[in-house]
Amino acid sequence: MTDYRTINRANWDERAPAHAASPDYAVDRFLADPGYLSEVVRFDLPRLGDVAGLRGVHLQCHIGTDTVSLHRLGARMTGLDFSGASLAQARALADRTGAAVDFLEADVYDAPEVLGRGGFDLVYTGIGALCWLPDVRRWAGVVADLLRPGGRLFLREGHPMLGTLDDPRPDGTLAVAHPYFERPEPLVWDGPGTYVQTEETFRHTVSHSWNHGLGEVVTALLDAGLDLTMLAEHDSAPWDALPGATVRDAAGEWRLADRPWRLAQTYTLQARRRG
């Protein structure tokens, strides 16, 4: 298999400064308002509950806006990512906002070796993370290894049904074009842009990703020793996944302009490690 880590790391390393400078990540609002939380974390506040005092780790934390948001809610946070350039932006955000967050560089599959086993009350994985991993069962094992007995996983992710869709057709039709279930071979994308507003031009345009069916994710967690405590599907996403077919709401989420109830775009899942 082609080294997907090298390919994807180059893609993320190049985009990290552009993401930090984009209004979509709202770094300026973090700097101006010590109570500001990322839109992703604010969306799930009713489901997240009280995290004050919890020892948490944010896997695949990117530039750290969600990590710092969880810190602002009182959690003792560590962020982990494989992109050094992303972590440079995350550390700068933490330094400039006075957030006591540790950021470590490692592949997510190596997290138990880097962070230790059984020491976390909360494992948080934010939107757009699992698709970069080829093996969801291995990821579930990592989550179980990190959590103490009774510790909690909180995951919000792009829905696998959304991941199957091609770009909207001129007549608005949405067509299934990609695998719903995890496949050994990656989906190979070659696109010049990124998912935020930016005028930057990128050289590293290729990325490798995988879809993971909802049943595959749930079963992997159950088999790894976690019990599902919540699963909610949403008709919206925090990025414009289907340009030309969506509208943005007051909370900053994007949903289909025409009959949004047709499509689950994201989901929120919670699970606890068995004691």
From TrEMBL:
GO process annotations (BP): methylation
Keyword NAD appears in the UniProt entry: no
Keywords: Methyltransferase, Transferase
Pfam families: Methyltransf_12
Residues covered by the Methyltransferase type domain: 58-153
Domain of life: Bacteria
One GO MF term: methyltransferase activity
Protein name (database record): Methyltransferase domain-containing protein
Originating species: Micromonospora inositola
